Amino acid sequence: TTQPTPPPAARPASSNWIVSFTSDPAHRFFCRVPNEFIVDSFNLVALPDVPHQQEALKLILSNEWAVGHRYASDGVPEAVQASAVMLYGLIHARYILTPRGMEAMRKKFRTVDFGRCPRTLCHGQPMLPVGTADVLGHGPVQGYCPNCDDIYMPPAAQLLLARREFREARMGRGAATMAPVGVAGGAIEGQGYESRAGVGWASGALDGSSWGTTFPHLFLQTYPHYHTGAYVEERLERYVPRIHGFKVRRAHDDVEEDEVDGEEEEEGQEEEEGEDDEEEEEEDDDDVEEDE
Description:
three-stranded antiparallel beta sheet; mainly alpha
């Protein structure tokens, strides 16, 4: 009897690299940059160089990418994969400042893909991604709140940081300096984040340069109806500490009151001096009229 021929091994599903990358829940802050934007050399003018840039660009534009493998594909070195993530982040920062990019990010903002402000009195205000610098390696992406006009570490990043610090503590090492990471965890030499005030960054972090310092503010200028207007100091709802219902008086309150009193005294003195000058002018005018 003839043995049946076994079926060929199933090939993993393939997809465009950009679709695969942005479909990862860890990369929900990214939108999809169209290929036509990337192949237009004008959009890449003066872009910072990254290692293996040509190979990384080719990978970004490739249509044969194994779905389900976060950064792995047969025959593609890890360094090229990490450089592709870094390069895509730099291109992404430019794309989201265009009208099409703004619209793509607006849709993600409406679905709260960027998270909500952790500040209680902002009542779940959706945030926007922002970087603390426009160049690579200067810090992870942060969440900007249009209500309180402040920035916060996204919850997912806090989890990564806590997990890393816990692992470091179990191994008996401090978390003073984290291992070098790229835009999304790629091991790029020289792209490490050092801790500041005892807070380090974790592997898997998203570099803030992929969104830059301009995006959220230009976004709110483009779509002003998404701005609550609470950034004005008088309108911002603040927590008031109380003891048995009475507002707690602090040292800086006394300093502020003294400053206000000092300003009022100066204004009063200026007004008195102004009135004295007016009286002297009137007296001089009367003397002139009598002489005439």
